[in-house]
Amino acid sequence: MLARPMLLLAVVVAVSAMSGLAAQASPLCVKERTPFALSDDTVKWTMSIAPGADCIQGLRWSYMQIFNVSVVSGPSRGQLAVVGSGFRYSAENHPPSQDKFTLLISGKNRHDLGTSTLEVEVNPQ
Length: 125
Description:
The protein is mainly beta. Helices cover 14% and strands 49% of the residues. It is built from one helix and eight strands. It has one helix spanning 3-19; strands at 30-32, 41-49, 54-58, 64-73, 79-83, 86-90, 99-109, 112-124. The chain has a five-stranded mixed β-sheet, with no helix packed on it. The chain has a three-stranded antiparallel β-sheet with strand order 3-6-5, with no helix packed on it. The chain is elongated and about 45 Å long.
């Protein structure tokens, strides 16, 4: 009778312990975040990230729908993944160095369809 609650408690403790091993995200990694307009525009963002950290950034503004995010040119140092209407950049653990990547965003800005190019410069913290 006591085995079932103890098993449940053991599972909860194990999951809690494993969640502490997950990669830590940098909460304010994008420093300059100029809005893009999906009007064939090009926007430059600047990111600051610690070695080994992750930056998770959404791309949708409240008045936009994002249909597709694709990688035009990937980073040479870190890892980049498109996640829904955003991205996740993971910095290397090695000594900090600059990096950059470019994304193409397509969607609808209010009623107008369009694309934007987003160039992200990554600087070490």
